[in-house]
Every structure is written in structure tokens, then in C-alpha cells.
Amino acid sequence: MPQKYLVTSALPYANGPFHIGHIAGAYLSADIYVRWLRLCNEDVVFVCGSDEHGAAITIQAKREGKTPRELIDLYHEQLKQGAARLGISFDIYHRTSDPIHHQTSQDFFKVLYDKGVFVEKVSEQLYDETAQMFLADRYVKGTCPKCGHDAAYGDQCEKCGSSLDPLDLINPVSTLSGSTPILRQTKHWYLPLGNYTEWVSQWIDEQQNTESWKKQVYKQCQSWIEQGLRDRAITRDLDWGVPVPLPDAEGKVLYVWMDAPIGYISATKALLPDTWQDYWQNPDTKLVHFIGKDNIVFHCLIFPIMLHAHGNFVLPTNVPANQFLNLEGEKLSTSRNYAVWLLDYLNDFPDMEDVLRYTLTAIMPETKDSDFSWKDLQTRNNSELVAILGNLVNRVIVLLNKNFEGKIPDVLPDPRAIIEDAAFELRQYQKALHQNINGYIHRYEFRNALQEILNVARVANKFLTDTEPWKLIKTNPDQAGAVLTICAEIIAYFAVYLEPFLPFSANKLRHWLLLSNEDIVAIKNNAFTMETGRRILNTNEYLFRKIEDAEIAPYIAQLEAKRQTMLDAQKTVAEATTETQTVATHTPVKEAITYDDFAKLDIRTATIIAAERVPKADKLLKLTIDLGFEQRTVVSGIAEHYTPESIVGQRVLLLANLAPRKLRGIESNGMILMAGDGKTLQFVSPEGEIENGNVVS
Questions:
Q1: What is the DSSP letter of 160?
Q2: If you compute the radius of gyration of the chain from its CA atoms, what whole number of angstroms results?
Q3: For residue 120, how many other CB atoms are within 10 A of its CB?
Q4: In the prediction, which pLDDT does 597 show?
Q5: Which of 125, 184, 538, 574 has the greatest count of CB atoms below 10 A from its CB?
Q6: Residue 580: what pLDDT?
Q7: Torsion of CA 573, 574, 575, 576, to 10 degrees
Q8: CA–CA dist 523, 123 (Å, integer)
Q9: Is residue 185 within a helix (H) or strand (E), and if so which, with residue range?
Q10: What per-residue string of b and e applies to 610-635 under the rule 16 or more CB within 10 Å gives b?
């Protein structure tokens, strides 16, 4: 019997379209996973939808001079269209403004309320006297208490990723009026997360042991729990959202991060009104959430606690959160329009959806942040898709049509016997293809899974080049036919196994090779052979085409112009700040050293893989550093600037040959390089994909 899977991708805010960072974070990986499961005949439901509530929606609506409804209707369609055009194969792309979602969320709330789960509190909250409203979430900005970032929102700091409450902010300012808010009393309902600390800690440990959660996900969860889980308000004073279903809650809505994950349930209800329980309330269902790292706390702690408290739903099996994708060395920024927008790419590069899918899969930020560049996309397309995969397909189809009338030749007794020695390595790769890809997919290693296919293509190309069937046809037609038969068979396997990654290209191959459903089943069972006389279409179409420098030059120039604008703005701010400071504020340059002094320093690239607070030390964090060849413990005085969970996965430079020193009883082996202005600290980080342990010179 097929395994039941319920797969979700994080609900994107309907306040703008998709950019490539979104796709690389939570959508492409989920689609690859789902397509593979379907290929393996598993029972899969794949749901997503627009998150259409919360302060972010109302703020963006004000900016664009629209009502919230007008805004979400516009961007819901753009999000839905962009995903569909890229081949993201949702079974349903729903929306949280739908009545079925409102009802589902309110019913969920009522169950928890009737069980006495919530704590009712009257507390002081930030209030804008000018706008005459309470300031929830993104209606207020201020300085992050964790990292010192001066533009943190009331729900989250986008710089360090910390989850915040508006009252946490230092020097808060209303984003509506620019005024300083006052404190005013209001009543809300809270989810007492701390009451579930023991349960959620044990549950996460069990999941890690049985399902091998990603290291950075597990560590971040541990860090949150060790800090102590606080009561979380699950209602807000807003006029946009799901109304709180209580008689004394007029003017209040459910906190968006309560109703948003319930959107997975309501989407399934909309898709399967009669059978949705077969997935959400079946203990055999595997529930997998695909998200970005900024959503870990909500999907690994808050939502599971909600589901557990309710009692009638399955809990997540795994939450394979990806890290962030950067753009040409800079952080993607919607507000500054520093992004590659999905619809723009699809419009500007028609019929090249798979090129973007391929590139984003190859650089997918599975365990650490990665970087997209236009030159890298061009190189991967030209050097890998065109030169390796496309070249193999084109040569085989052309040679079959030129020399064998577009049919698999009649080679007796068996083409594999004729050319057995030369084809041995290729045949071994072919036989292991399904097993190897399956292993990587179920470990959420999509980059490696895709590389497995490309490796086979490389071996096949070498086989074709070494045997030279275009020459053999003149002296030994049987051998030439055997070579082309074996290569055509490999391409048939690609037509199936490429489908999760490059579905548009896989469909082309299936058409060109005239593969039937029975053929596809045989391939999946490793029982397919190219029988004599099978016809191959004579197509003049290439599987992929080259991308020329001139095609990407305008996009590189655009990004460079935007980058320069951002730098100019930063410079202006810095100069304005400098004018208000005295010379004494700058740390004098230390006395000169020689090159020999510098050469004594052994500085290595590394990654923080775990972080925790040092007991009774407000400034210290205990870090576990991965140097590639070993792991080290380093004690660093950055606790006033960063939370432990926000820096797991951070790339750093480590002074590796600093003499060990004990701090608070912990031996520290090395020093993290930081830059600061006396108020904030920033990591000095290597750029690109350089491996841990490399020497900085």
C-alpha cells in the first residue's frame, strides 16, 4: 500500500510576487520531493496558498493606495501564476481569505479555548495616538534588542531572524504616523508555550532520532527551548484578518501566525472536502513542511504545540528548512527591489523554465546560505545543460535519424553484448540511478540527487565520444547501432528521472522517444530496453540553447545600478552620522607590524553549527565551529548582539592558532573575527561557496 504524504510549502504573503529567493527557499525543493514521490506511486497531497492576513498586507495596501482585498486579489493571482508557470505542481493553491479558512481557523481556536488552553491577559501594548490604533507586528519599527539592527519590525528582525514582540523593540516608532507610540491597556489571548516545554522538547528529540532533521533546524529548536518558551499572544487588535470567535473580542483578529499554518488544513479541506481527514487525522500520514529558516520557530514549535493541544491532527514528520539565497553577493531585498522576480524571468526567458529550476537546484541553500548570479546561471546552462545533457540527446537523435531512419537498429543478438566492455561503467550507473536518487531525495539532498543524473550524462557522453559511432557506421554498423541503442536507452531513463527536477525537458524527451506509460513503469523497475524498430522522432529542436553574454548583460547592469544606489544611500547615512560624532569616537590605527607578524596568523573559513548561552554570563556565547577537518569550541562575547538560534549556519572567519583560553570554565580554541562601531557587531564572512577550513591570506 502506498505511503500517505501530506506536503506543504510555506504560505507566501500576498503583498508581492515571488522572487528567486522564495523559490529556492520553500517551493522548488518541495516540488522536487513531491514529483519524486508521485513517480514512486506514493499517495501524496501537496498544498499551499496565499497568506492574506496580518499587518504586512494592510501596510502594503496603504503604500499602493489599495484596499487589502484589492491587494490580495492582485498578488494572489501573480503568485499562483508564477508557481504554475515554473512547474510547481501544487494540488491546490488556496488562499486564507476564503470562507472555509476563516471557519477552519475559528473552529480550531474554539477547540483550544474550550479546553482552557489559552491564558487571557490585560496588558499594555503600543498605541499610535495619531492613527488611533494599536500597533501590532509590522505597524511598528525600532532597534532589535538582540542584534542592534535599527529597522527591526514588531514581529521579527529581518537581519538576525529573531522572533520579537513590539514591546521588545528599543525606541519604537509607528510605521503609520512616524510618531512615538504610547502604552495603552488591551485584552488578548495567549498560547502558554512554556507549559508544553517538556512535551515539545521530547517530541523534537524523537523526530531528530527517527527522521534526522537538518542539523541547523534541530539546533535552532534546542536553542529556543533552552532560552525558555514565553506566552505568545495569538490575537491582535486589527480590522483585517480572521475575527476572534468570542463575544467579548470585537475588533480583534487571530494572530496571522496562528491562522497561517491552519491554512494548510483549510486548503486540504477545499481540495478534498470528503476525505481530508484521511491525511490530517491519519497517524500513518507523513506530514512534511518545506520552509525557509526564518519560519523554523513557527513550524517546529508553535504549530506543533497547537496541533498537540488540539489533539486531533498528525504532527510534522520533518521540517527541512532551507537557508537564504543571496543575489550577486548581496541580500535579496523586496523593499529595495533588489531581486530577480520570477514572472520577469519567465517573461524574458520563454521556454527556459528548466534552466532556472536547474540553477536554483544546483545552488539550493540546503545547509548554508548560497548565492545566485546571472553569470553562474549562464555558465551552468552552457557548460552543463547544453554541453553535457543537451549534447548527448542531440547527437544520439541526429545519428539515429541520419543512419538508421529514426529507428532503433536491428542489432543481433544483443547490442549490450556487442559493446559490453565499453558500456560496463555506464550500465552500472544506469542500474543504480533510481536507488541513488531515492536515497538523496529522502535525505532532502536535492543538489546531490540532481548531480547523480548529470554524472550519468557525463559518463554517457564519454562513452559516445570514445566509441565514435559516426566513424563506426562506416566500418561496423552493428557496433555503431549498439552504441546508439545503449545511449538512447540512457536518454529514456533521463526522460523519467529528470521529471522531478526539469519537468519541461523530461516531457520533451518522452515525446521525442515516444515513451508509453508501460515504458515509464519498466524504466522505474529497471526493466526497460530499447527494442528493435522503435521509432525516434526526427526533431530539429534542441533540448537546451546557449545563453549569450548580451542576453544577461542588461540584468547584471540593473543589479549593479541598484547595488550602487544602496551603497550611496548607506554612504549618505554614514556621512550624516559621522558629522554628529567627534574624532575621538574612532579607534586609532594600531602601530605598524611587518608581514612576518601577519604571517603568524592562521585565519580559516568556518561555519557555526551550534550556539548556546554561557550560564551566568550576559555577554558570552558558547559556539561549536566546523572547520571542515575538525570541530572546535569557541567562547565569544557577542551575546548582547546575537541570539544563539540566529547564528547557527553563519559563515565566519576564525583565528585558528590563538592559544586556548578558559572563559567561565570553558576552554575556547580560537577567535571569531568581527567588525563593529562600538554599538553593533557584524560577522566578517567569506563570500561564495568556499569550503570550511580554507586559509585566508
A1: T
A2: 28
A3: 12
A4: 61
A5: 125
A6: 46
A7: 50
A8: 64
A9: strand 182-192
A10: bbbbbeeeeebbbbbbbbeeeebebb
Ranges of H-type helices in 119-214: 197-211
Among left, alpha and beta (phi > 0; psi -120 to 50; other), residue 682 is beta
Length of the chain, in residues: 697
Contacts of 364 (CB under 8 A, 6+ apart): 24, 28, 29, 322, 370, 446, 447
For residue 529, give Cα distances in angstroms to 210, 373, 532, 535, 677: 38, 41, 9, 13, 67
Map grid coordinates 508544553 to a residue: 196
pLDDT < 70 stretches in the chain: 161, 412-418, 420, 570, 572-599, 677-679, 688-689
pLDDT at site 587:
52
Give me the residues paired with residue 607 across strands.
626, 651
Q: How far apart are CA 614 and CA 621, in angstroms?
A: 5
Residue bearing cell 501590532: 136
pTM score over 0.85: no
Contact 266, 101 (CB under 8 A): yes
Rounded Cα distance between 369 and 688, Å, is: 9
Q: CA-CA distances (angstroms) from residue 407 to 398, 418, 485, 520? A: 11, 18, 9, 19
Distance CA 318, CA 337 (A): 33
Ordered DSSP codes for 411-437: -SS-HHHHTHHHHHHHHHHHHHHHHHH
C-alpha cell at position 90: 501544487
Q: Is 246 helix (H, G, I), strand (E, B) or coil?
A: coil
Q: What is the DSSP letter of 167?
A: G
Nearest to 212 by CA among 383, 444, 419: 444
Furthest-apart CA atoms within the chain: distance in Å = 92
Tell me what pLDDT residue 253 has: 96
C-alpha cell of 253? 483578529
Evaluate whether 366 touches 445 at the Cβ level (below 8 Å).
Answer: yes
590-595, long-range: CB within 8 Å, 24+ apart, which pairs?
none
Question: Would you state the pLDDT for residue 153?
Answer: 87
Q: What local confidence, expressed as pLDDT, does residue 328 receive? A: 93
Beta bridge partners of 190: 119, 233
The pLDDT of residue 689: 64
Nearest to 266, CA basis, from 51, 115, 503: 51
The DSSP code sequence of 623-684 is: EEEE-SS-EEEEEES-TTT--HHHHTT-EEEEETTSPPEEETTEEE--EE-EEE-SS-EEE-
Spatial distance between the Cα atoms of 212 and 279, rounded to a whole number of angstroms: 22
The pLDDT value recorded for residue 619 is 80
Q: Tell me the C-alpha to C-alpha distance, in Å, between residue 88 and each of 280, 357, 564.
A: 22, 10, 34
d(CA 565, CA 558): 11
Angle at the Cα of 439 from the Cα atoms of 435 and 440, rounded to 5 degrees: 120
Calpha distance 196→654 (Å, rounded): 38
Q: Say whether 514 sits in a helix, a strand or coil.
A: coil
pLDDT value of position 473: 93
Grid cell digits, residue 572: 549618505
Measure the CA–CA gap between 200 and 280, rounded to whole angstroms.
Answer: 19
Q: 68-85 and 55-64 are packed helices; what angle lies between their axes, rounded to 10 degrees? A: 100
Within 8 A by CB and 6+ apart from 227, the residues are 613, 643, 644, 645
Angle between helices 353-362 and 446-467 (to 10 degrees): 110
User: Dihedral of the CA atoms 298, 111, 265, 213 (nearest 10)?
Assistant: 40
